[in-house]
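thread from #wetlab-drylab

HS: before we spend reagent money on co-crystallization trials with calcium ion, can we at least see a predicted complex? here's what I'd submit
DV: go for it
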Amino acid sequence: MSDLVAVILAAGKGTRMRSKMPKVLHKVGGKAMLQHVIDAATAAGAEKKVVIVGHEAELVETMVADQGKIALQAEQLGTGHAVMQTKEVLKDFHGTAMILCGDTPLLEGEELAKFYAEHKTSGAAATVLTAMMDNPFGYGRIIRDAAGNVQGIVEEKDATAEQKLIKEINTGIYCIECPLLFDVLATLTCDNAQGEYYLTDVLSKLNAAGQKVGGVVTADSDMVMGINSRQQLAVAESVMRQRVLAKLMDAGVTIMDPASTFIEASVKIGADTIIYPYTWLEGSTEIGEDCEIGPNARFTNVKIGNACHLQFIYGHDCRVCDAVTAGPYVHLRPDTVLSNRVKIGNFVEVKNSNVGEGTKLPHLLYIGDSDIGSGVNMGCGCITVNYDGKKKYRTVIEDDAFVGCNTNLVAPVTVRKGSYIGAGSTITKEVPENALGIGRAKQINIEGWAEKQRQK
Ligand code: UD1
Ligand code: CA
């Protein structure tokens, strides 16, 4: 849609966050607030975007990358001044500027699309999105005439006692026609309580010039919540979380206890999977159908197949195929692949390893930099000795091998197909196919030793 451009204000410092980081880069649901706004604009059909940056401009620009053009507001002289900085970028633009703030992470594309459609059909020069608030403190108030037309917006700090009683507030979201917007911006002054160039004054000026100015009330005031402090950030996080969980439940996922379940919007989960309490699912994590996840599971960027049972486990940047069971107390580290029907028991760590179909790693193991075939059984306490202090080496264990308890596999080393390793071995050489490998000191018994010891 070429006649719509999103203009996103993100130059402010966000003083009340008390943060080294610019406010709009703080995350809600694992994603920067500004990114939420950019995504909502895209979903509303605003392919073109201009982001106004100022405080820590480089950091914000880096996040925006190729998602939009950048306009620099070197000094933060108010919201009107901020939009003036887009004049150069939008000098040939004829159409609607949808003006948004970078600190409203709960905004959704559908709502914006509806707002834009209403602006278009009304034929107004400008339309403001408003909300009814029981406690309107701090927001600009909407001033309407007897016929209900928007006459202007009065900031809290400039409002009379009577105006402060108005409960309809300015969300800071507008659709304004260009190039008219820039003609009016050029006439703004800063003779107000804050000594700033108010974007809100554009509406009263348009109204005074006989242009039509509309106001659309949003049904969901949560959605337009602006985040100024860490406390408000926590409120937004909780609203976002409930939203994500509600969508998953509607799609057939059982969430046993939403209050103790943390799932980012980016995560995908198949139907009939059950999520037990104290579960964190993050990033590009995908879980198939019919799984039981948790209690106490955390997965970051993990692809999980169908019918897996995974409890008391942390996995990151790895892959789990179908019908795998793992836990309790398992750590799956990056570049690990667990094939179908792998069984992992308690106190097991697997790193940068491929584990073949149906292989069992039941208790107390460290598996690092390994390629383990299918049908392998690793006894309790086995360890791959993969690191000599300088380099890492691989361990290869072929199909159907049986590794006895408490074996050290000193890499690089290969255990061939179908072989056995005696318990307590330290294996430093290849074990041939179908052989028995034993590498441990021979046992000696001293007859009567204990008896003599007791008589001393
Ligand atoms: C603004 C509105 C107010 C509205 C409220 C909604 C004005 C004058 N007031 O007030 O009517 O109810 O938003 O949340 O517009 N920014 C810049 N450059 C600046 C100043 C601000 O980029 O020079 C950015 C900020 O980073 C922020 C946004 O504009 O993302 C809003 O600024 P803020 O100072 O929070 O405005 P409010 O006082 O909340
Ligand atoms: Ca604000």
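DV: Residues 8 and 100 are 5 Å apart (CA to CA).
HS: ok that's useful, forwarding to the group
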